[in-house]
Give the backbone structure.
Amino acid sequence: MIALARNNLPQTDFSPVFNEAGRVGVSKLTLTDFRNYSHLRMEMDSRPVVLTGSNGAGKTNILEALSFLIPGRGLRRAKLVDVARIKTGNDNLPSSALWAVAASVQNFNDITDIGTGCEKRTSFENASERRVVRIDGQQAKSQADLGNVLTAIWLTPDMDRLFQGGASARMRFLDRLVYAFDPNHAKRTAAYTHAMKQRTRLLKENVGDKSWLSVLERTMAEQGIAVAAARKEIIARLIKVMSESEGPFPVANLALDGLVEEWLDDMPALKAEDKLCEFLEKDRNIDAIKGSASSGVHKTDLKVWHIEKCMNAALCSTGEQKALLIAMILAQAKAQVATNGKAPILLLDEIAAHLDEDRRKTLFEELCSLNAQSWLTGTDVGLFKELGNRAQFFHVHDSKVSMKNRIYAVN
Ligand SMILES: Nc1ncnc2c1ncn2[C@@H]1O[C@H](COP(=O)(O)OP(=O)(O)O)[C@@H](O)[C@H]1O
Ligand SMILES: [Mg+2]
């Protein structure tokens, strides 16, 4: 029954245009058992994609599916199993694949096919789930390889309180911007965190293996300094692009608040590495009691100011904070294009509703002029009317996606 429905998917009668102006984006997207979608197949061209529909229709779920085309846990940071469609009735097909997202990614005239999903593995002792990644049909060594094909940046309503909340969400946001420039940043942050966790465990268990502790601390220092340097570099690029842009979006000043970053301002990287090693060694006793490392780049915070208002972003209005975040991601997209010609896809969830008309129009202008495919969601199609035929409009309703009279999902 389901197979028949899939074969009957309507064919599109427009040809996706992607190579004009060297745009990068997703030209085909297929979801299988992903959230509320049993099966969804969409085709897009390079223009901004607008998804409209009522609350709970499945708009954010499509953005989440796209966010799995890059390394990481996706825009909801969900557990892999939670993403699988909760099945009802008798459509519970036996399968080792819990969910899958497939996409054709167009970059200039190149097309790369990405497939990712979650597979269930059942061994004699236990069952486990793991993320699988295929690039052009070949199983990838790690999900980090996705970063060489596509980069993505998102803004979601959850991030409205990014400037008020704890530092970790801000640093995750910043690190995603760094990954978009340099996929190896993900490996460095993972290696740093892994070494830090091992050190903490060793200290808590009071193993007393000093040489192993020194190896772990040296790894933390080497990876940590590289992480801090990459973060500093991205901040400098963003500030430069923002200060050169005009229009209604605010210019933000950004700074890293951390000891390691201060050292990097004052001394060469190798000296900063040695200094972090010294600090970690000196703090072993206290860190054993605390159960965490007292020094390192995990302690760093991102400080953001609204320059014109001379105001810490945390004290700005919700709309101003949103505008600051948009200014930052637009700067990121422009900086990426200027540096390596590879624009990230922008996933902007419920963004238009929070902007005044002037900012909304400017955002649309910017999105149309960027060589980046953007995906926008909203409940009210009227908010996107200025985009006209510069965008492609899809309506999401009841787990189906339609464009004009075409239906793209069959459940
Ligand atoms: N694992 C799942 N299986 C089936 N449905 C799900 C799953 N996770 C979320 N949903 C449902 O998907 C629907 C659409 O969610 P969402 O994409 O966030 O809607 P919106 O269009 O408002 O952005 C919601 O009704 C939600 O309950
Ligand atoms: Mg939503």
